[in-house]
Amino acid sequence: MYVCGVTPYDTTHLGHARTFLVFDVLARLLEARGKRVRYVQNITDIDESILQRASRDGIDWRDLGKREESAFIRDMKRLGWRRPDVLPHATREIAGMKRMVATLREKGIAYELDGGVYFDVSRDPHYGELSRLSRAKMARIASEQDDASLDDAARGDPADFALWRRVGSGPTWPGPGGTGRPGWHLECSAMSLRYLGPQIDIHGGGADLIYPHHENEIAQSEAATGVRPVVGHWMHVVLMSLEGEKMSKSKGNMIFVRDALERVTPEGLRLYLLDVHYRRRMDHDEGRMRRADERSESLAAALGDGPIGPIRRDAASGSVLDALDDDLDTPKAISRLERGARGAKNDRTRASLRAIARVLGVARAVGTAAGGASRRRD
Question: CA-CA distances (angstroms) from residue 228 to 62, 208, 213, 327?
Fold first, then answer.
């Protein structure tokens, strides 16, 4: 499983946390079912967004990235995150990116301009099948990206995207087509290839990455390796909003995890963020968040202390698992877990439900084998 991770130039907001908790639950669920999961989540520590923020704040871009990455890891640990098995950093994977560019050039799928090396989308008959956007819509979205001003106007098609850019300022590396730095999309293709091979079972991230990022990942990965499809299942988490506006670093309308955890427990915040299906937009509601915290307390009380697991197929446990098996329907699963915990009539059912609660991470750690998020201390 490969999940597009953070670009560390601001501290974790609730939209970030929601996305990564969805994949956290998925990894936990698969492992609870006996699957071996290799989970890779990248750190995009070189990006135009980081460089722009570092310049604005008068800080070295490396120091900014390290500071915000540490804050992200700290926030996610407090939420009981199942840490990915590999957290590769783009700046440490430049060699793999160069190799991929060289392969694409050798195959005649990439071409060189004064501004760098570009992918020729006309060579990909499947380009656009993920996003299903018109070329006009693609052009509008691409023009809004942080790196749009660096694109060479001489490229053959407005949709042709940079694999490697020649740049005269900021961090650079010797590379294909001259000294410069890699294109954003190339980074994930090179990292997923190195750590997971030419095919990925599950790939995901925020829904805002479908185009151009994931569309371009598919194009360059499949062209470089000759393996199609590069991804078996795509999962995209719809963005979180605040008063109807997308919650984002660029807009500055963020609720940070660290601030939310001053008001609710980690388990309550998990319940809140998982209580809307990942394919539905979620608008932040402070009252609903506090009620979720109360529900988490009540759920923990209903589950009680005692052994955790194994997960069984009794009526209560089976009902929760059926919801999770149906496109990871976490809100339905949480509701059924609450109902099952209140009505559990024997210790085996409670032990099974405690194990499922640990997969979701929505109730304080209970039982003799408990793990996961810990309580906030007032």
Answer: 36, 23, 18, 24
**Please, where are the H alpha helices in the chain?**
14-32, 48-57, 61-78, 94-106, 135-143, 184-196, 215-225, 257-260, 266-274, 286-303, 315-325, 330-343, 347-360
Whether 288 and 46 have beta carbons less than 8 Å apart is answered as no
Q: Are 17 and 273 in contact (CB under 8 A)?
A: yes
In 3D space, the residue among 223, 233, 227, 229 whose CA is nearest the CA of residue 327 turns out to be 233
Q: How far apart are the first and last CA of the chain?
A: 37
Q: How many whole angstroms from its chain centre is CA 77?
A: 15
Letter for the amino acid at 25? V
For position 376, what pLDDT does the model report? 36
Phi and psi (nearest 5°) for 248? -155, 160
pTM exceeds cut of 0.85: yes
Enter the tokens of residue 254: 């963020």
- Give 209-251 pLDDT, tens digit per residue: 999 999 999 999 999 999 999 999 999 999 999 887 777 666 6
